[in-house]
Specification:
The chain is α/β, with parallel strands linked by helices. It contains 3 helices and 17 strands. The strands form 4 sheets. Strands 7, 8, 9, 10, 11, 12, 14 and 16 form an 8-stranded parallel sheet that branches. The chain is elongated, with a radius of gyration of 20 Å.
């Protein structure tokens, strides 16, 4: 899914798609067969498909359109998404690795007191967090951010391979200003969550809504994801991050949210002409 604030939603699926739904205005582009049953296409909810459409009613015809280019071998939506995904994955792995190397202002061993931002510089602050602190059932993550300065991007590098969130997070102010980097993790389970999740090597599971964007090796969704692009500073990076040609084709909302995202080009957003 692709969405910028105030713009239509664009969902791109390389293969077949069914059970589709979008909240708001926008379009769905499907490389294979699109099953539009219960989608209720209309002038503000369009469907483009590459090979076939099913489940359409008579009144849907004007809003469910074939675009042969979406199914073209080598250049269609499936191939384009695969190439974009590989490029973006490489860039995000580099970003996660660089964030993990940031010198922490302190290590979070418990959530009993607020983080000290006194030595934060260049618009960002990095902290390390132990696996035990992350998984503490009595943890109050909100307490950590009682002194969160306006305009400062916070990077939390969480240690550990298999992680299950213990405490609760309720502060909506974290959504655009905190990046949780799970560089070591192979499995992460979260409850209600605020802030961006960067877990390139992990199987991520949520049991409640995530308020922020998500990048993971795989993602089992048991709750909604409310995307909120990180509005941070690129000063976090000590060297330029490679620019992928486009990242707009990412499917299912797995769009980063890293400090460098603002510097990356947005391309490939045009809706294909019906054929």
């Amino acid at each position: 899914m692709e969405r910028a604030l105030g713009e239509p939603i664009v969902v791109r699926v390389g293969g077949d798609a069914s059970g589709m739904a979008i909240n708001g205005r926008g379009s769905v582009q499907v490389g294979g067969t699109a099953n539009v049953q219960n989608f209720n296409p209309n002038a503000t909810k369009l469907v483009y498909y590459g090979t076939a459409a099913s489940g359409a009613q008579a009144q849907d015809a004007a809003y469910v359109m074939r675009s042969a280019a979406l199914a073209a071998a080598g250049t269609g939506l499936s191939a384009t998404i695969a190439a974009q995904t590989l490029s973006l994955s490489q860039d995000l792995k580099a970003l996660s690795a660089e964030l993990a190397l940031l010198r922490p202002l302190s290590t979070i061993a418990s959530t009993a007191s607020a983080l000290d931002y006194g030595r934060a510089a260049n618009g960002y602050a990095a902290f390390a967090m132990t696996a035990a602190a992350f998984q503490d059932q009595n943890a109050n993550f909100d307490r950590l951010f009682a002194n969160l300065p306006a305009g400062v991007t916070t990077v939390i590098n969480v240690a550990g391979g298999v992680l299950n969130q213990g405490g609760n997070i309720n502060l909506s102010s974290l959504n655009r200003l905190v990046i949780w980097n799970f560089a070591e993790a192979t499995q992460v389970t979260v409850k209600g969550w605020h802030g961006s999740i960067l877990a390139l090597n992990a199987a991520l599971t949520n049991t409640s809504a995530i308020e922020g964007s998500v990048v993971a090796r795989s993602f089992t969704m048991n709750g909604e994801v409310h995307l909120g692009t990180c509005d941070g500073t690129s000063a976090i990076l000590s060297a330029p991050v490679p620019e992928p040609a486009t990242w707009a084709g990412m499917v299912a909302g797995l769009v980063l949210v890293g400090a460098a995202l603002r510097r990356w080009r947005r391309g490939g957003r045009s809706v294909p002409a019906a054929a």
